[in-house]
Design a protein that fits this description.
This protein is mainly alpha-helical. It has 8 helices and 4 strands. The protein is globular, with a radius of gyration of 18 Å.
């Protein structure tokens, strides 16, 4: 069991991000991982060391999801897009935080689960109205998504808010947690900047409150949340790489 309060980040996601060095460095090797249809080819130039560092620092925080678990997911996502060295360094930091055996086990089991569920694909493509097999905990999506959730940053709003709904269900049932969950549900229904900003405000209050002090999470739940987060982060990384590859190489 891990106390959630010890692992929470403090910065809510900012969707306005850019590579701090202003350029993307690429190596001629290719990544053979599969990516979602229409998102990226199965062959993409492997990002160089500088670009990998930029990716590490420009990925948004996923607070109030546990920071430790989010970073485990980030290390796996970075490795899958070809940033093995950066991923390894991040894993060493995680080992210092959570312990060698715990961290390595969590990484291994999460990697295995991610492969079992999607073989490296972004598991839910925006606009997919079907349920995802092998996910007994995930709410099945049987209704058409609002148009706002199918373009721009809408998919990110939707996916992260849906994960926050599930996270809220693992927390003690208090007025603030219920408000947090309601705000997250609202984002999945609207995917608007306004609904997102409201969720951001409630999330900040939750982080600053004593509500999470005694919250715990089972190992199975940790693996589940890491697996879901890998999908979100990997799509962010792939979209960044695709965008900059197209800018520099047409």
């Amino acid at each position: 069991m891990i106390q959630a309060v010890l692992l929470l980040g403090c910065v809510f996601p900012s969707l306005v991000v850019a590579f701090p060095n202003g350029a993307l460095t690429l190596e001629p090797a290719v990544i053979e991982n599969e990516y979602p249809p229409g998102l990226l080819s199965s062959q993409i130039p492997r990002p160089g060391p500088s670009t990998c560092q930029d990716l590490l620092h420009t990925v948004p925080s996923l607070a109030p999801l546990p920071e430790y678990l989010s970073n485990v997911a980030l290390s796996i996502a970075l490795e899958e897009v070809g940033c093995s060295a950066v991923a390894h360094n991040l894993q060493l930091q995680l080992i210092a935080m959570g312990g060698k055996a715990t961290t390595e086990t969590l990484i291994q089991k999460s990697q295995n689960r991610h492969k079992e569920e999607g073989t490296g694909h972004t598991k839910v493509i925006v606009g997919d109205q079907g349920g995802v097999t092998g996910e007994p905990k995930r709410v099945q999506r049987s209704v058409t998504l609002p148009e706002a959730c199918t373009h721009e940053h809408g998919w990110f709003y939707y996916e992260l808010a849906a994960l926050m709904v599930e996270f809220a269900e693992k927390l003690p049932s208090t007025d603030l947690v219920r408000e947090f969950k309601t705000s997250a549900v609202s984002v999945t229904q609207k995917c608007t900047n306004e609904s997102w900003k409201h969720l951001e405000e409630v999330s900040k209050r939750l982080l600053e409150s004593p509500e999470l002090e005694n919250a715990t999470m089972s190992t199975e739940d940790q693996i589940y949340f890491v697996t879901q987060t890998i999908t979100i982060l990997k799509r962010i990384l792939v979209e960044f790489l695709q965008k900059f590859f197209q800018v520099y190489f047409g």
